[in-house]
Design a protein that fits this description.
By secondary structure, the chain is an alpha/beta fold. It folds into 2 domains: 7-141 and 274-344, Response regulator (Rossmann fold, 3-Layer(aba) Sandwich), CATH 3.40.50.2300; 143-273 and 348-363, Response regulator (Rossmann fold). It has 13 helices and 15 strands. Helix 3 packs across helix 12 and helix 6 packs across helix 7. The chain is globular and about 65 Å long. The termini are far apart. Belongs to the leucine-binding protein family. Pfam families: Peripla_BP_6 (PF13458).
């Protein structure tokens, strides 16, 4: 009888010990992207922004007293099966990725296969909209951005005959934007692919560009800066517009006076007028980095994940169900809004470059 009692006590203590160990292990979150390409495109990195949020959350007790541990997965998006096998063995439930829309298409089947959620911080193609999947996007899709652009054009008596310059590394995004322009009655009179270095870009039909009402740049801030400089050298004086890709200080750093007056749309207030991201900005300065849309959305993504895990533990539900409880997440004086499918439905801010700064014109 005593022997049985000791065995039961032993089993009980082992169960308690395992429970304690499992509930004090760090929560692993992977940051997945092609980091070499990311460094060339943005003024800062997703990992650095995630690290700042990680430190803040961990300093305040982590997630239910469990620390966050970040894992870096550098990929060219051609070795995904081995990466996801590794993530699954590490019990990773969620990744943050700055994959563009073209790359997210490659990611999608592996997210489904391994049941891992992706917080996508750089994809806006309507291809992923209103789908029940493992993708949760923190940027509004192109239908919202292009609608905001058309509203601005109408208010300012600008026509809708478009010239488009696009990056060939993200044709899915280009097709999505073009589709929304045509849906709203716009016309695309001229378009040209950005091939090779943006610093060497040369428009192939100046006369046709001059017949357009505006030039829409589907390129990162740095490339947009070089494109605008080269158009000005060719005496092309058309108003240039950009979407959320352009919301990066590389635009100003590389563009100089040439980008004065450039208008772009972003769901994040990168002007810092209301000091929503002070802590992020101050921490980025320690690394000699400026704020950008990619740093803001990655920073917010880690807080979104933290809230989802809190919900998971509180209500004894899955991580995905935990996310669904955060369809109106109040964060740093902002509200992140999502629909049933995990698509961000926030509106857009409109900015102009003025005297080397991003000046917010209006909230849309």
């Amino acid at each position: 009888m005593k022997k049985k009692r000791f065995i039961l006590i032993g089993i009980f203590l082992v169960v308690i010990a395992l429970f304690y160990v499992n509930h004090n292990k760090p929560i692993k979150i992977a940051i997945l992207n092609d980091f070499e390409k990311e460094r060339s495109e943005y003024t800062t990195s997703t990992f650095l922004s995630a690290q700042i949020a990680q430190e803040e959350i961990n300093e305040h007790g982590g997630i239910n007293n469990r620390k966050i541990e970040l894992m870096i997965k550098d990929t060219d998006f051609n070795d995904l099966d081995s990466i996801f096998k590794s993530l699954k063995s590490e019990k990773v439930e969620v990744i943050i990725s700055a994959a563009n829309s073209q790359q997210l298409i490659k990611l999608e089947p592996y997210l489904e296969k391994y049941k891992i959620t992706c917080i996508a911080v750089n994809s806006t193609s309507v291809t992923f909209s209103n789908k029940k999947d493992y993708i949760w996007r923190v940027l509004p899709d192109d239908s919202i951005e292009i609608k905001a652009l058309f509203d601005y054009l109408k208010r300012n008596n600008i026509g809708n005959n478009f010239a488009i310059i696009y990056d060939t590394n993200n044709l899915e995004y280009k097709d999505s934007v073009e589709g929304q322009i045509l849906n709203l009655g716009g016309k695309i009179l001229w378009k040209q692919a950005l091939k090779g270095e943006a610093a060497k870009f040369s428009p192939n039909n100046i006369d046709l560009i001059k017949k357009c009402d505006l030039v829409l740049l589907l390129a990162y801030g740095k490339d947009s800066a070089f494109i605008i400089q080269n158009m000005k050298r060719k005496n092309i004086d058309k108003e240039c517009f950009g979407l959320s890709w352009a919301a990066d200080y590389n635009l100003i750093y590389y563009g100089g006076k040439a980008v004065e007056g450039f208008t772009f749309f972003s769901p994040k207030d990168i002007s810092n007028r209301y000091y929503n991201y002070n802590n992020l900005i101050e921490n980025l300065k320690k690394y000699d980095k400026n704020n950008s849309i990619i740093s803001i959305v990655t920073y917010e993504a880690l807080y979104l994940i933290s809230k989802a895990y809190e919900n998971k533990n509180k209500y004894n539900i899955s991580f995905q169900e935990g996310l669904m409880k955060e369809k109106n997440l109040k964060l740093h004086n902002n509200t992140l809004q999502f629909n049933y499918f995990g698509d961000c439905i926030n509106g857009e801010f409109i900015f102009k470059v003025k005297e080397g700064k991003f000046i917010k014109l209006e909230d849309n």
